[in-house]
Every structure is written in C-alpha cells, then in structure tokens.
Amino acid sequence: MTISFTVEEINLMCVFEGKDRTGMTADIKNVIPHIQDRDMVELAEQVIGKLEAMSDEEFAGVALEAAE
C-alpha cells in the first residue's frame, strides 16, 4: 500500500525535516497541544496517522520539499 501526502501535509512535515519517521511523529504529537487552529490540529492528526501507518522504508522515499 502506497501512502500519499497532500501538499499541506508535506509542508507541515517539512517543519520537522531531518527527523526519522518515529521522531517526526513524536515531535508533531508534542506540538499539537500548542496549536490553536482546529484545521491545523486536524492536519497534524492526519499526518500522524499516515506516518504511523507506513514503514521506515516508505518514509525514506517521501520527498520532503515544501511548496511555495
């Protein structure tokens, strides 16, 4: 199963770039309590769900390039 990410999800992940999959997941979980925008919380939760569903090998193949 191939997991794909939206542009918005990739942009969020770029904030935590340099982390491995589990590190990125943990960091995103740690910031959720500090996010006041409900849409951003929902986006972060979607990213966490996808990261937890994929393998480290799949994560290594994700191109983390922010869209402008």
Description:
By secondary structure, this protein is mostly helical. The chain is built from four helices and no strands. Helix content is 60%, strand content 0%. The longest helix is centred in the last third of the chain and has 16 residues, at 38-53.
Topology:
Layout: H1 7-15, H2 21-31, H3 38-53, H4 56-60
Helix pairs in contact: 1-3, 2-3
Organism: Parablautia intestinalis
InterPro entries: TTRAP, TTRAP_sf
Protein name: Tranposon-transfer assisting protein
Count up the domains.
1
Per DSSP, the total helix count is 4
Oligomer: single chain
What percentage of the residues does DSSP assign to strands (E)? under 5%
Gap between N and C termini: 28 Å
Judging from the principal axes of the Cα atoms, what is the shape? Answer: globular
Could you name the ranges where pLDDT drops below 50 across 5 or more consecutive residues?
Answer: none
Give me the secondary-structure category.
mainly alpha
Query: How many beta-strand segments?
Result: 0
**In percent, how helical is the residue content?**
55-70%
| SSE pattern, N- to C-terminal | HHHH
Protein name: Tranposon-transfer assisting protein
Organism: Parablautia intestinalis
InterPro entries: TTRAP, TTRAP_sf
Pfam families: TTRAP
